[in-house]
Amino acid sequence: MDINKIDQIIDGHNSEASSLIQVLLEIQSENRWLPRQALERISERMDVPLSRIQHIATFYKAFSLVPKGRHEIHICMGTACHVRGAQNILNAVEDHTGIKPGETDLALKFSLETVNCLGCCALGPVIEVDGQIHGKLTPPETAEALKKYE
Amino acid sequence: MSKILMKIDGKEIEAEEGMTVLEAARTVGVNIPSLCHHDKLEPYGACRICTVEAQKNGRSRLVVSCVYPVEKNLEITTRSETIDRARRTILELLLSHAPDSEPLRILAAEYGADKNRFEKEPSFCIHCGLCVRYCAEIKGLHAVGFINRGSKREINFVPELVAAECWSCKECFPLCPTSALQAAYVFTAAQVSEIPVFEGDTD
Fold first, then answer.
1. What is residue B55's DSSP assignment?
2. Which candidate from A52, A58, A59 shows the least CB-CB separation from B142?
3. Domains contained in chain A, number
4. Could you say which of A110, A112, A123, B94 has the lowest number of CB atoms within 10 Å?
5. Domain limits at A127?
6. How many angstroms separate the CA of residue B113 from the nearest CA in chain A?
7. Interface touch A55/B161, C-beta < 8 Å
8. Over the stretch B141-154, which tens digit does the pLDDT of each residue have?
9. Is the backbone of residue A65 left (phi > 0), alpha (psi -120 to 50) or beta?
């Protein structure tokens, strides 16, 4: 990630230490993950110890310290989706992408996470790809849906 | 500073406002066991070993003495069957992390804690935070901090700071009740060649 872009985001918050999480969130959404050099730059510019930034960046699940894929897949494993076969959907996604929950493939195409409810249980089993909901899926449909992403 | 009258183990004592129960007890020579307390550091309340019974308005409950402020007419009991049972369980939980820690074994012998009661989870760190807080509050270096959360929480050194500062300080080393800190230091040194580990490493 470009150091000027990081500086720009920090300047947008007047380098105030209280805006640390906001800055981290902006870099996360811009870059999809938080590179080490970005954390060091924040530490330097915002006068927050690096150990504290690491503490916060590893505490919240919204932040990632490792590269994420271009498309983020969230598979709902909540009760409603579970009874409607979420495990089969998960297996289908794992087969298609070759990765397990929490992982990212080498080509940085997909990242996979399981979640506990997406809030639309009537559509179960549900997956969410880049914020878009795919509901009432069967394993073949899931593989089909994922083929559209490049 | 106004004086506060209270009782510890039936003894009338005078404490100063703003003190914690643990500090007040130590001024009159009553010993309460503690693993995460340090005189120079802010109260933290991590290990819960210093749990005591506090009676107020005829009610009694378990409180953590190192973070509980003294108050008027408070009656503290520092040893009872209830307290011993609570401390025993806390010790057993801590022992599942660090079964061979010296301070834990001494306390375990006193309270009859069984180190095999819970399944072993040998992270060796009991999250007392002494190293993290000492480095931040006293030294102002922030070379060691916590990462992750919940059951995955652990201490983590910042390699660049370790290379620059730690070898000449090492003041946190004797504070650690389990030696997990020293292990984390050596682990960091194994990843960064500039960090010395043995006496001969520095010229």
1. E
2. A52
3. 2
4. A123
5. 71-147
6. 32
7. no
8. 999 999 999 989 99
9. alpha
